[in-house]
Amino acid sequence: MGVYPLFSSYIIERFYNVLPFVFSAITAGIIADRKGRKYLLYIGIALLGLSFTLYSFTLNILTYFLIQTLLQSGWAFLDVFVWVIAADIAVQKNNSYYYTYGIASMVAGVALGAFLSVVVKQLDGIQSFPISLMAYLPLFIAVALLGLIPETLPKKPDLSELIEIENLDIPIIEKLTPREKEIAVLLYKKLSNKEICELLCISNNTLKTHLRNLYHKAGVSNRKELRELFIEFLK
Q1: Fewer CB in 10 Å around end: N or C, the chain?
Q2: Of the residues 96, 121, 148, which one is the last residue of a structural domain?
Q3: Residues 19, 134 within the same domain
Q4: What range defines the domain where residue 36 resides?
Q5: What is the model's pTM?
Q6: Per-residue pLDDT averaged across 48-76, rounded?
């Protein structure tokens, strides 16, 4: 709202402003899946920064199209980041409401920003310092926090073979905790300790404790013997 280029005389404005958003949103979705979620933040913030910079130049039809294109594209990348992260959280938590909460919080933020900008414009005029501060400050905060934002959320491990192992007639299965069953499946799939820790979001020391209990219950001394035990029953 603070940097939106006001060119009411350009009728084409109402038709053009949505086009960069649509095409950029599609592109952002592809990048999120192929390269990672965090790339959307880098690109979105960079595009918004460029559009804000151009707004300080002389406004004419050329700068209007440049600002509008960069502005809408930047918001598209940031919006898609929120959408996919909200979806990731919903999948991770196995609760679709988390997606709704993510989208609702984004819309609430947009509504609050729009309300504040209208209030400030009424008080101080369109080209006011508070408006500029409201526009730029979130970008600086986002850049400062980029290092704290993960590249993507941890994915749940593929435990598709867990049902097979649970149905095996192996006495130790009933003795295992749910976490130990997950680790047993991942060991059967030949994952390393590091990979198991990343998938289950646990520390190496925690994994070692689980392995020690798991080996004790299975009556084996290492992962190789445990895997051979499962292989024998899977034949």
Answers
A1: C
A2: 148
A3: yes
A4: 13-148
A5: 0.59
A6: 84
